[in-house]
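Re: beginner question about structure tokens

> Can someone show what the tokenized structure looks like for a real chain? I only ever see the sequence side.

Sure, here's an example I had lying around. Input first:
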Amino acid sequence: MLGITDYSDGVLHDISFTLGEGENLVIIGANGTGKSTLARVLCSLIDNRSVTIDGEPLHRIPRKERKKLINYVPAELEIFDPYLSVTEFLELAFEGEAGEIARILEALDISHLSLKPCRELSSGESALVLIASALVHGARCTILDEPTANLDPRRTKAIYELLRTTGRLESRIIITHDLNLAKKLGYRLLYLHDGAIEYLGDSESFFEPENLRNYFGDSLKVVGEHVVVDL
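And the corresponding structure tokens:
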């Protein structure tokens, strides 16, 4: 479905991979290695001629059609009018049935935020509203940049369960620093280092202890089914 071929710029170097229909991907890497830049390239928020969807160059697809195909949800809530309520913000991306926004807010346990101005949201509340926006949008491929940042453990677990089970997001690309989340999701995994792909493959192989030592030295260890910082 989604592909990028031989893309390079001042940050990224020779990026090529494909994401099949209904396939999911986790992108990890250190700060400044190009993860968010790659997300913007994949959505053509950064102009390029390297990305295709169903074999068609993304830049040639009209914007109205493109938004149904791929959606980028940033790490921070950025809107032109901070006085918009949460419901009004979500309505900007909504094309579904009446009442669907209310059902999504209820599923995320944030119905109480529906009339709250976006400018009054906490960082954790903003993260949940961004998740809601992804569900409302319902593109074929959704890129979520740090979806569990600023969330407490209970909310993080809820978002993990949603990412594992929701059928509203057909294909998901998750950008995260949370290696434990990356391991538990079990998606295909892409590891960026200095703007280049160092690893692209299955999650299970990446999290083998010897492989982790190659990439992270002695800073991490696997304890049962979890990845933890070895302090």
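Each token stands for a local structural state, so reading them left to right follows the chain. The longest strand covers residues 2-7.
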